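question for whoever is on the cluster today: can someone run the full assembly for these? two chains, 496 residues total. i dont have access anymore since they changed the login thing
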Amino acid sequence: MLKHIGQYFLMIRMIFIKPTKGKIMRKLIFKDIHDLIIGSLWIVGFLSFFVGGVVSIQTALNIENPLIPKNLVGFATRQSVILEFAPTFMSIILAGKVGSFITSSIGTMRVTEQIDALEVMGINSINYLVFPKLIAMMLLPFVINLSMFLGIFGGWAATIYGGFSSSADFIEGIQLDFRPFHVVYAFIKTFLFAMILATIPSYHGYYMKGGALEVGKASTVAFVWTSVVIIVVNYFVTQVLLA
Amino acid sequence: MIQIEQLSKSFDANCVLDKVSTTFEQGKTNLVIGQSGSGKTVLLKCLLGLIAPDSGEIRFHNNAFSTMKDEEKRILRREIGMVFQGSALFDSMSVLDNVMFPMRLLTDLNEAEMRDHAEKVIQRVNLVDANNKLPAEISGGMQKRVAIARAVVMRPKYLFCDEPNSGLDPKTAMVIDNLIQELTHEFNITTVINSHDMNSVMEIGETILFLKDGKKEWRGTKDDIFKTDNNAVTDFVYSSELFKKVRKLYLDQ
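^ ran it for u. tokens below:
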């Protein structure tokens, strides 16, 4: 375990030394933005819309006391989506989608000796492979921003079309007791999750040994560890920033 | 020329290379042969700097690798070409892009110059109408030609090939062997080839190093291999009936 942690941090160091030519790196970054960020937008949008809707329906169905204002549905949806669902839940979903893609693509390069070919040419393969993914994942806050918007929008749509509350009540709830720092907190942890999402799957792909079967196993292990680290980091960041 | 002195490498308690010393000559195809697990690939990886040996020294034209500074190692790597067993072509790049790749990363040539040079090298390895194809769209033999083109595009001083004709039919394997030998002579390269294909040994083995259990067992030429009385070599090389007959015919002459 300690060996893996040490090797992981040595890999992090190697990401930033002996950089690849700028012109080549620019192309790699744009390719990874396309594969990792733009390629994830549809699933993030789809899930956010419907989960936002479910959150608002469940909140509305649990309000039985007539003294509780109807704007609570909008308020609860906003708080759930901004504080946890968009940054944390979406990052775990992306650990499955983006993380598996990173591990399997780098792992396949390892199995087929493409990484050795890069090393033989005198290229820092860690910088060549991981740096563009790290930079691409720095756009994750924009994806999470979209998730926040669509989650709340999904909540509004479900509330209105389900007849649980009026649009005015829902919008009033969204604005109720709004603290901008909650959004800052969400983006701070999204930024940390982005680094985790780029580096842990890369580590599992880069240092894997074996053949095609092991690529699949490495992807699974990478997903598990990425999720575990996201949850643990989420706990500590929440404790430090909100408690 | 590459000299190896007392090179040793172990993985945990398993000694893979045991004080191997030899010389790989310039302008010749130097073959390293031996059974699977004899240490051929580890020796090649040590030569490439992908694995650090536990002890011993590797000298590239009398320059000891272990005492080279990082900048010298970087320059040396540009003088090395490698043909991997599975070709190791970049899946997402076309044939032309694969061949241009080392130039893109390591030279300041403009796009037109790189393309022109790459196309000449692709022609030299007798590849036609494949420039825009992806590696998955061409045959194994063509992939090997692309790998050779990529390995020699930077005009290397040293060319390393790890079982370059594995998985190929005998005729294509011979074409690839001959291509490597032609390029070795044409560019005066020090070529080291890992192989356990006896056709390659007989065809292009200008010097042959036989490894057994990580030790240097025998060294000679393709002519010497017919005459040797080293049992380990004869057991390995003449394991098939065909080669036993070939040897008998040679010795009868």
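summary bc i know u wont read the tokens: Residues 25 and 87 of chain A are 28 Å apart (CA to CA). The mean pLDDT of chain A is 92.
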